[in-house]
Amino acid sequence: MRNTRYKTHEIAKQAGVSPASVSRAINHPELLSGESLEKIRATMQTMGYDVNEIFQTDSKEIILINCPQGTNPFYEEVLDGVISSAECNGYYTLLNYTELDENNIEDFLKMLQIAKIKGLIALSQLSVEILNKINSFVPVVQCCEFNDQSSLPYVSIDDYMAAKNAVKYLIAAGRRKIAFLNGPRHYKYARERLRGFMDALTEEHIAVPDEWIMHVPQIDYQMADTLISRVLSDDHKPDAVFAASDVLAAAVVNRAVYSDLKVPEDLMVIGFDNISLCQIVRPALTSVNQPKHKLGYTACEMLHEKLKGKTLKVNEVLLSTELVLRGSTEHQ
Questions:
Q1: Where in this chain does the entry annotate a coiled-coil region (predicted)?
Q2: DSSP E strands, 184-276
Q3: How far is the C-alpha of 262 from the C-alpha of 174, rounded, in Å?
Q4: What is the helix, strand, coil percentage profile of the chain, to 5?
Q5: Domain 61-157+292-319 is of which CATH architecture?
Q6: Which CATH number fits domain 8-54: 1.10.3430, 1.20.1300, 1.10.260, 3.90.930?
Q7: Per-residue pLDDT tens over the stretch 72-93
Q8: Residue 58: predicted pLDDT
Q9: pTM strictly above 0.85
């Protein structure tokens, strides 16, 4: 009923308050003192308004999703999963893009209180100290990125094995000159995928030049193109590239075509995440599929259990991945 037409000025005149106060009473009663709110309620009742219906409180609680890398298309389906679970369980969701650190955590905690946030899903790796501070205010579930030194629950994948298996596929296909285009070093996924990449090569006694291990400061197509163009313009070229993101892998495929290299004949390419971009690139991109929607959905279900005061049956959840084969590694 909050979209009903009210005679705001008449109510304000009879209650002896400003029209703005009447508007706040109807739309944001938490912003008024109890005395002012009660005066406006009483006035509206004498004027014939159904105050019980007008001032009914919304029982839905709010959970916050902290996602500093929100521009990365990988997170679209993860967020869809969170929202699907939240709607099923009767929560509103808010999205926050702040990269949390020691300099802004106190302001963030104040925001949690002011906005009456009931729980948090963290989509970036946070320090144990920051996680503990947030958890002292509201329950926290880590999703995708997580801090394994924390006792707080998480849902993610095994980045190490997913990367290792992808590189082993390239080796089994006869490729031994394999480069790696990775994400920012400070992310756990980047460190784990690098470890998987290196172990797969080491086990097969394959060396990799230092310049073939590249890190972009963020998941960005142009940055990836700049890095891979240097490698592909050299006389000593890789015959395969493993990329820690489909966005990065798309840059590799397009740069290879521009450099008159045939994909997959001259250069095999594997990406990571299996986002919709994989089927737009030509040739279509082989990629490690993450269960993106399920990651977000599971994280929100875990948070819901905690908000209901239940003990989680499993505190640490690792979902399965699979390599989806397409034209960048296979002849179609």
A1: none
A2: 213-215, 240-243, 268-273
A3: 16
A4: 45, 15, 40
A5: 3-Layer(aba) Sandwich (3.40)
A6: 1.10.260
A7: 899 999 999 999 999 999 998 9
A8: 57
A9: no
